[in-house]
Amino acid sequence: MRVMTWSIAPEPYDSPVALALWRAYYTEVSDRWYLLHEGRRTGPEELEREIAARTGAELTPPGGQLLVGRYDGEPGGCAGVRLLDAATAELTRVFVREELRGKGGAPLLVRAAEDAARALGATRLILDTRGDLVEARALYARLGYTETERHNTDPYAEHWFTKQLT
Question: Residue ranges of the N-acetyltransferase domain (predicted)?
């Protein structure tokens, strides 16, 4: 029996792999929001406009990092961190392809992102998420994140978390 495993490594935000994962991530979270609130999927023009507007350039050293998880060598997920100030980094773009969920990738990606934030000098990691992303909220709680008060003005954010990186 062959054992399949995850490997996680930094990836340029604009690589073909990173762009494909960003497209998959954004399509899923956008479709979930529109289906819940408007009973429809994201329109093609809306999708292309938003994907293009959020390049991920902030996930580049020295102020950020994008990590890609590969499952059995195939790109399967991502997580990013970016410094907000000398001590605080934001966790963003945490995503695992649907067919690979439940195989342990998400906690590995988040822990690798925590390590990347520490390497950038952060002592605290913050994030936001939506109410309908119940899997994400459960993951963050399991990994020691504490729900806090609002820390940004993102109109789609409904839950905010923090974790001290000790």
Answer: 20-166
